[in-house]
Design a protein that fits this description.
Length: about 375
Amino acid sequence: MIMNEKVEDIVIVGGGPAGSYLGYLLAKNGLHPVIFDHSYPREKPCGGGISVLAIEKFPILSEFQEPKAPDNRLELIASKGISVMTSGKKSSWAFSRASMDKYILSRALKAGCRLIQEQVIDIKLKNNQWEIKTKKSLYKTKLIIGADGVNSTVRKRILGPIPNKDIGVCYGCFAKSEKEEVSRIIFLKDRVGYAWCFPRHDHLSIGVGLEPSDSKDIKKIFNEVISTYYPHVKIQSRWGAKIPSVKDEHFFKIPCSGKNWILVGDAAGHVDPSTGEGITYALWSAELASIAIINNNPSSFDMLWRKEYGDNLIGSCKSRDIFYNPIILDYSIRLAKRSRTLSTFFYELITNQIPQHDLLKRIIKDIPKTIKEYVQSKLQ
């Protein structure tokens, strides 16, 4: 039974990185957003890898004082087993999502944002106001932001859900190891997806991400990864999750905002279609949404994100087939074993240091050095 009815200025549904960072930015600018989330902060099922781009672009991450695991190395393993250790000058990080999400949310609350720990079960537009229903109360607002993930209630009511074909499936665990582990990506045979291991401060995040059509035996694949590469680890907990994994570039033509609503982060589907990296775009979309809201023009968010990172998402979507082509992957990793230039390129590509609009130029620039290094290694 609905007991109360309350009116809020700005409602953000979802207290993950996108929702909390947006709340923080708005509150810092004198606005009064309210975050609805019944579950945060919690240890979200994900790798927890933070790209070099995100570290450099968002100072709030560098201000995070909790332990983190910096690493400038990443081992890539092809489906046939050949591997290369890539590295770069700049380190990516791996965080506990519970710690990171709690930190960003605490910054939002300290800045003046409010948290209502209730689950939003429905929304609808009535008389130019959004009615937000929880199990306890009915709230109203003129502006609603969907930051509630891949299964976003806000998105479902405004646009409909993200199509199943554009959703990936993940299964993984958090584990302890007495050995020193390295960050690792393992490409899977006859599958579009990969397994990963990201060492965090005091545990490992190990998982497998696949397209829905390949995911029926995902637990079996995960167990094979554990038995092959990590038989020595002690699994603490297992988890399953879904993430946006866009296959068709036309998805990114769908609007993510209107005069009284915005979708950010996973709710907008803004996750790298090739690598599955989403924290960068969660924070980036929140930053751009804050600009649109502060300027009293929420619908301008679409123009802003398309201008700033739309090409990255579309370019990654177009290159998915190349990224996961087993022949190209196997050949490229073999070549990278003999070329420091190519192995560095892979590290910088995966850690989001190379914008899509610079990708072809970078490849062309690196070809002569790559060939030279390959020939020299063969002659040694």
